[in-house]
Amino acid sequence: MSKVDILEAWQAHLADGRRRSPHTVRAYLAAANRLLQATGLGNFNDVAKLDGPALRRQLAARRAEGLSNASAARELSALKGFVSFARSQVGEDATPPRLRGPRLKKGLPRPVTPDEAVNVADLVAGTANEAWTGARDRAVLLLMYGAGLRIAEALSLKGGDLPLGDTLAVTGKGGKQRVVPLISIIRAAVADYVEKCPWPIEREQPLFRGQKGGTLSQGMVQKAMARARIALGLPSTATPHALRHSFATHLLSAGADLRSLQELLGHASLGSTQIYTKVDAATLLDTYRSAHPREKKPSG
């Protein structure tokens, strides 16, 4: 097996087996390619023998190139996953090498990518025990990602909010009301759930119902997303609330101003919204370091 064969197998595993987003597949494939170039290895047996110190040396070389803590953590995750995959290919225990990554500053939201958000919602729907609960959870998650709702706000919707139009009046923290736009995919997802729901959707009753017809709990949505997160290989930060963070970050990246974003999120203070400027800047810098030709080592 050549190096090309190894990388193709790794790419197929990420894209088809783990259903990672195209962006993640590219990043993890590049990390594996750099490791193979640095070590000169060309088969899974040798890759499977790599240990913690070997990966630490590779990571140190990358850090010397100016890699940020966040990018270094992602690089390490890719390398550990690659070695784990190699071990599974040669019939060994697929446990990855034990190695701690760099410490990351806490405080900034950790959004998911658009592909990851949609993949999570679709996987939740496709793996549910019943079609109606899958449609329900998908609709809730898309309300959080596509309209920026908090989970409690989504679950507080009632039958009287139907039929959904182009906008939705939401009551947030402190009883503050705001109006959010609803794109067609959200309206379609809610309509699909309503059609499949075995319980009558009454005006004063919760829109999203639990298995026995009561109010759907936040814990059920969180568990559904946790299962999808694990299946897709996403980090533990990929929670339902991360979908709201993604809504904010992606709007800011697309040119939304802070005041408008504050209104859409229902923040009482602009300071709460300003944190997303740091998230967007961090994402931009990470993209720059990944794409700028002076940040790349010559291939060969």
Summary of the model, kept short:
With 300 residues, this protein is mainly alpha-helical. It has helices spanning 3-17, 22-39, 44-48, 52-63, 69-89, 114-127, 131-147, 151-155, 184-196, 218-232, 240-253, 258-265, 270-291; strands spanning 167-171, 177-181.
Question: What would you give as the CATH superfamily of the largest domain?
Answer: Intergrase catalytic core
As residue ranges, the low-confidence spans are 279-300
Domain count: 2
Distance between the terminal alpha carbons, to the nearest Å?
A: 19 Å
Tell how many strands the DSSP assignment holds. Answer: 2
Enter the CATH topology name of the largest domain: hpI Integrase, Chain A
Derived from helix and strand composition plus strand pairing, the structural class reads mainly alpha
Oligomer: single chain
The percent of residues in helical segments reads: 55-70%
General form? elongated
CATH class of the largest domain: Mainly Alpha
Can you walk through the features of this model?
This protein has 300 residues and is mainly α. The protein folds into two domains: 3-104, DNA polymerase, domain 1 (Orthogonal Bundle), CATH 1.10.150; 114-274, hpI Integrase, Chain A (Orthogonal Bundle), CATH 1.10.443. The chain contains 13 helices and two strands, in the order H-H-H-H-H-H-H-H-E-E-H-H-H-H-H. Strands 1-2 form a two-stranded antiparallel sheet. Strand 1 (167-171) and strand 2 form a beta hairpin. Helix 2 (22-39) crosses helix 5, helix 11 (240-253) crosses helix 13 (270-291) and helix 12 (258-265) crosses helix 13 (270-291).
